[in-house]
Fold:
Amino acid sequence: MSQVSPFMQRALDAAQAVRGYTSPNPWVGAVVVREGEVAGIGATSPPGGAHAEAAALASAGGHGSDLYVTLEPCVPFEGKRTRPCVEAILESGVGRVVVALEDPDPHVRGKGIAHLREAGVTVEVGDGRDEARDLLRPYLKHRQTELPYVIAKFAASLDGRVATASGDSKWITGEPARDRVHEQRAWVDAILVGSGTVLADDPALTARPGGALASRQPARVVLDARGRISPAARIFGEPGHTIVATSCDARPAWKQQIASAGAQIIECDHDGSGINLDQLFATLGARGILSIWAEGGGTVLGSLFEGGHVDEVWAFIAPVIIGGDGLPAVAGEGARALDEAWRLRQPTIEVLGTDVLVRGYTGAWSP
Ligand code: AOF
Ligand code: ZN
Structure:
């Protein structure tokens, strides 16, 4: 990790507090410092609202101040919804700007820093770079590849099963682990599951951190190539959008019923037994979906791993053994040799009650 000054840490904390809520814009934090004291803090508002720098300067003014910001300030470009931050900064009289990370958005990409320097403002880059990068992984991947950032989640027994052979899965992990899942659901843009999960569990797939329905709900994306789920499934009645990804294998009458239930349909090509995921993710990325929290089941996670789509893994492991024909967390062909297996990069381990959470990064993309 990079060096982080205490002021940049405050800016990172402000950004973390609005993570996901600004999507498809990045979640950014800014701190105005005058005479060594914090004079104002701002974070990005939801799309169309104030950027972090503008919010921090509005509360503090800028004259004779330093501004700490977790992402390069933006510049004018066509289609922009808010006033460029470089203008707000120059007008405010801030003399020094400390930036954690360059903005990879093709509209900005270095222009913000250059613009401020040309106007005589001192700009330092790199304080808290690694932390800002980690926090913005979904945004960075999306702006670099136009694809969403995919997090694969499963809750498994010690022997890697997510349900008994008869499909019983409630509950493998305990309350603290399940609450962590709801915290994650609350900031991502979409939750992804297969039709098998909807048929087996009829889940709500809403974000309920601390037991209360979150004010912002992620979209629910169901993969259903053959048109198996019922238009009466719970997901269609919950707050937030539901998207059903399907193919020409599903009956037109079923598609109509699903659309009447309020869902958006994305038609994809086939890929073996399922949906062409490259196509689906390109479509979701084009719709401004930055992050996907993939909850399974095993067939879906298998396809995601095998297609190279998974960027991050959250594996909750409970002290229980299911054995026998219990359903695997990740199905599909699997790795033939260990050097083909998906080994996590930078793995971390956390204890949650009597469960453990193993996290890490996979896939070809890294920031
Ligand atoms: C910043 N500070 O807090 C954020 C930035 O349509 P607009 O006006 O909201 O601009 C969106 C772009 O601004 C977005 O694609 C990204 O490049 C940048 N986001 N920039 O200076 C912020 N959220
Ligand atoms: Zn801006």
Remarks:
- Residues 6-17 form the longest helix (12 residues).
- The mean pLDDT is 96.
